């Protein structure tokens, strides 16, 4: 039975992952910022898990870095040990607001990069040998585009950190998984016109995350077709790319 700790557990993708993990017989500790959503998620997981299943939780603002170590201690106290850590929190900042305000820019970088990186770094000392540290990045982190380069820079920073952490922890058999979703139909993307074959449901992405953990993948694009799409985008010459409206 795996012991799973999920940060940002009330996000749409993380909720779907949590339900899948409980259905597989895992114990889960959920950390979220919205108490109402967290209570609803925990109640749902406890019904799905049935008697004998441990479903712990903590309400916390993950932007407060000083509280991260205590959250790991609380999770370990409830679960006994930690096999899987999923870091799933984040925001989709307004690019124009970040261009106009240093405060907005730094807040976006703090939530999407610094906070996630600190959690991943602490996870290295908390997860069991042979366990998993997984974090949700984005295809936006593969190349800076004028429409969302602040968000992309944060996710790119997270991806590079995870690459180094993966190298560091390979000797312990710890999987460090970088998850790169494309367009996902969630409340975070509510302002987008969510139509077309490039859009995926949170459940589809969650299934891909669980499958990638099972297969001990290092990096996964979700859905799969974003891999070849981003391969093409990354190889467009800069002299051409900078003139594109993306």
Description:
- There is one protein chain.
- By secondary structure, this protein is of the alpha/beta class.
- It has 9 helices and 9 strands.
- It has helices spanning 12-23, 35-49, 68-79, 95-100, 102-126, 149-169, 202-214, 226-234, 238-241; strands at residues 3-7, 27-32, 55-59, 82-87, 127-136, 175-181, 183-184, 199-200, 219-222.
- 38% of the residues are buried.
- The mean pLDDT is 95.
Residue share in helix? 40-55%
| CATH domain fold name | Rossmann fold
How many domain regions?
1
Pattern of helices and strands: EHEHEHEHHEHEEEHEHH
Largest sheet: 7 strands, parallel
What's the architecture, going by CATH?
3-Layer(aba) Sandwich
Q: Which structural class do you get from the secondary structure elements?
A: alpha/beta
Number of helices: 9
Q: What CATH first level would be assigned?
A: Alpha Beta
Total beta strand runs: 9
The rough form would be described as: globular
Beta-strand content bin: 15-25%
Query: What's the pLDDT, averaged over the residues?
Result: 95
Radius of gyration (Å): 18 Å
End-to-end distance: 45 Å
CATH superfamily: NAD(P)-binding Rossmann-like Domain
Name the strands of the widest sheet in spatial order. Answer: 3-2-1-4-5-6-9
Low-confidence stretches: none
């Amino acid at each position: 039975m795996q012991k799973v700790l999920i940060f940002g557990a009330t996000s749409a993708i993380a909720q779907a992952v949590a339900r899948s993990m409980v259905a597989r017989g895992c114990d889960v500790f959920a950390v979220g910022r919205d108490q109402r959503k967290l209570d609803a998620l925990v109640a749902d997981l406890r019904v799905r898990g049935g008697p004998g299943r441990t479903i712990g939780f903590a309400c916390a603002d993950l932007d407060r870095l000083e509280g991260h170590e205590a959250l790991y201690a609380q999770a370990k106290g409830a679960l006994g040990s930690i096999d899987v850590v999923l870091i799933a929190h984040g925001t989709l900042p307004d690019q124009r607001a970040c261009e106009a305000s240093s405060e907005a820019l730094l807040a976006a970088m703090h939530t999407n990069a610094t906070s996630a990186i600190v959690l991943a770094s602490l996870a290295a000392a908390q997860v069991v040998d042979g366990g998993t540290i997984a974090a949700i990045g984005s295809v936006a982190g593969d190349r800076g585009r004028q429409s969302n380069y602040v968000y992309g820079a944060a996710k790119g920073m997270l991806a590079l950190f995870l690459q180094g952490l993966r190298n560091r922890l390979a000797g312990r058999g710890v999987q460090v998984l970088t998850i790169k979703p494309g367009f996902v139909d969630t409340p975070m993307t509510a302002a987008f016109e969510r139509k077309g074959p490039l859009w995926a449901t949170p459940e589809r992405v969650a299934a891909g995350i669980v499958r990638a953990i099972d297969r001990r993948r290092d990096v996964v694009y979700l859905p799969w077709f974003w891999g070849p799409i981003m391969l093409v985008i990354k190889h467009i010459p800069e002299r051409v790319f900078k003139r594109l409206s993306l």
